[in-house]
């Protein structure tokens, strides 16, 4: 059986209609499949990933090609790329990192991505996250490995009232249900049965 016969599906596909039914105050969308690679390299090597310097400030991310390069630890980063096949991303990074003694591993199936936005999104996130999400503190380019509800996530501040949440695929359904429940108070009362 070839891979062409097996369509990619997201653990969040069953939540699409519920996400679309949310008010403008809180918007949630599941991003289509995003390739991801874990990058390990000595930060002093000068290695670059897709033209971007490795962010060495803890809890930050930078744009890298069509995706984001997220600091996870002193010598570990996560690269996302919505426009590249996972195996191609891993091969590209292996070639780029080899001279610096670095490695990259495909972790695309490990996490799925949610995009959140709207004027009430910070209040929704604050219901289950202990971080200070005030726009003066959690500014664009900031990231954090944290808990949201009972799920471990990587939270990225994208700008304005826009966030990306990377959650393990096995916790995606739980987190989607939690976010829908946390958003309920901002829904139109006529829509609540």
From TrEMBL:
Pfam families: SoxG. InterPro entries: SoxG, TrmE/GcvT-like. This is Sarcosine oxidase subunit gamma. It comes from Blastococcus deserti.
